[in-house]
Write a structure and sequence with these properties.
alpha/beta; Arc Repressor Mutant, subunit A; five-stranded parallel β-sheet; single chain; 2 domains; four-stranded antiparallel β-sheet; Rossmann fold
């Protein structure tokens, strides 16, 4: 899952990034409202975590502008502003949830999962190609009738492949999407995790669906197009 954190406090931002990445999410940080709005407007995120008090453009303005532009990415305000009126104002601005600092990280994760389980998101919350199905909210993967148990990183790699069936994806593209800033060009981490995925997905003699593009990267066979 791709999460955009718009937070101007560097210590809080680093804490959120570290914790969310440990859960297998790809985290992008924005330290001010204008940059956060620019990134969020692309619609390339599954969840937004937004502080209310931001330099340049406050969190309310960020979310209001997104909703006015028909960007429906679920947004959660994470803020010290704890009054009832503050909460009402935040939700009325278009936020989907509101969590007050200091907060429990486990509660933040639960609220993010709850956002993705909402009925309006159910269609976009599932990916499939051929006999492989992924439920992003429940974080489950099946191939045919078999449940495939994946680690958070394996899940993230497969999610990226499922979002781009039939497309040639370079090792750098996959690494930047899944590992973000952690990736260094000299590592073979992508090849290692593709190997892990193949062993699990192809168990029992099932035909492999991940193609190697020599010298470039990988491609998930587009079963809808016959390859």
């Amino acid at each position: 899952m791709r999460i955009l954190v718009i937070e101007d406090d560097a210590e809080t931002a680093a804490y959120l990034q570290g914790g969310l990445q440990e859960e297998g999410h790809v985290v992008t940080l924005a330290a001010d409202g204008r940059n956060g709005l620019m990134l969020a407007a692309t619609g390339d995120f599954d969840v937004l975590v937004v502080d209310r008090m931001l330099p340049g453009l406050d969190g309310l303005a960020v979310v209001r502008t997104l909703r006015a532009s028909s960007v429906g990415t679920p947004a959660l305000f994470l803020t010290t502003m704890s009054g009832i009126d503050d909460r009402v104002t935040g939700l009325d601005a278009g936020a989907d949830d509101y969590l007050v600092k200091p907060f429990s990280f486990s509660e933040l994760l639960a609220r993010i999962r709850a956002l993705l389980r909402r009925p309006v998101l159910q269609t976009a919350n599932k990916l499939a190609s051929g006999d492989i199905s992924m439920d992003l909210g429940a974080r489950t993967v099946t191939r045919g009738a078999q449940t495939i148990v994946l680690t958070p990183r394996e899940f993230a790699v497969l999610e990226y492949l499922l979002r781009h069936p039939g497309q040639a994806l370079s090792r750098s593209q996959i690494a930047e999407r899944v590992w973000s800033w952690e990736f260094h060009g000299e590592t073979n981490i992508v090849d290692v995790y593709i190997g892990y995925l193949r062993r699990k997905l192809d168990e029992g003699g099932a035909p492999s669906v991940i193609e190697t593009l020599r010298g470039y990267g990988y491609r998930l066979k587009d079963e809808a197009r016959g390859g």
